[in-house]
Amino acid sequence: MNELQLNASSTVRGVPVKKGAAYHRRKIFWCYVFVLPQILMFLAFTLYPIVMSYVYSFYRWNGVGELQHFVGFANFLETIKDTYFWNAFKNNFIFMGVMVAVQVPLALIIALILNASWLKGSAFYRAIYFLPVVTTTAVVGIVMRFIFGAYKGLVNEILISLGLLDKPIDWLGSTDTALLIILLVGVWKTFGMKMIYWLAGLQSLPKDIFEAAKVDGANVFQTFRMITVPLLLPVGSVILLLSAVNALHVFDLVKSMTEGGPAFSTDMVDVYIYRYAFGGGGEARVGFASAAGIWYGIAVLIISMGLGLLVKLTGGKSKSH
């Protein structure tokens, strides 16, 4: 019996039963039937909007009616000349830099502690750290507006009661503190996901290597520097890639907390695009917003490719060792 016959047969109570080509055609047909809704949703809500955003970027269009005013690359050139676009661009990369520089190493430290065999109740602590991740970002933003509010905000009330402040501070209404608060909330909100990534990496490491190092007399810091770090390097590069790319999209958090203000000090490219696409404070400019989105998409693509190359190189070095 050849391989095709083996694949086309089964047993019923130990008796072989052959299944013909019609059975396999029906099986393939139903596979496509179940996959079809996902394919249609991808075409309608992902691929079509992406393609049309490129089309809209060449027109002056407010989102209503037919496309009539073809402007070529005018929207792209105007975007490049707009200082507010570069301000939002800068804020996005500040946010990404802080998320990577603060979250990634801090999450590794917490993951090492939670992965320690001597820690009791580690599952409870993991759940506490991960809880903000599963909380809706928009809800978090609204709650944080009350917590950091100038009038009877929880933070101001605590600081005043401790004698650290004489009068309330409008944390989200000042250009000096608004972005800082966004960064703090962003670190807290997504910290648990980076911690889970590190925990998964730590728990995948072979335990016999660590036992051998302990027998050889290596202390905790030597084990971490000489064994844990080299073995975690491929996982760490992937975490770095995911952290950087995810940090470049913070629309929901900024929109719900500050809407890009005050004085555009917390403006991000996502919020910038939304403002022009839906006419925040003026007429909608879908074509201009599409051009800004394409520029930003190119920047994210370049960053992702660079970090992806880093992941590949890191993985290659790990295999060579």
Automatic annotation (TrEMBL):
Transmembrane segments: 28-51, 93-116, 128-151, 171-188, 231-251, 293-311
Domain of life: Bacteria
Annotated ABC transmembrane type-1 domain residues: 89-307
Keywords from the named record: Cell membrane, Membrane, Sugar transport, Transmembrane, Transmembrane helix, Transport
Membrane topology classification: Multi-pass membrane protein
Localization (cell): Cell membrane
Alphabetical list of InterPro entries matching this protein: ABC_transporter_permease, MetI-like, MetI-like_sf
Entry's family note: Belongs to the binding-protein-dependent transport system permease family.
Protein name: Multiple sugar transport system permease protein
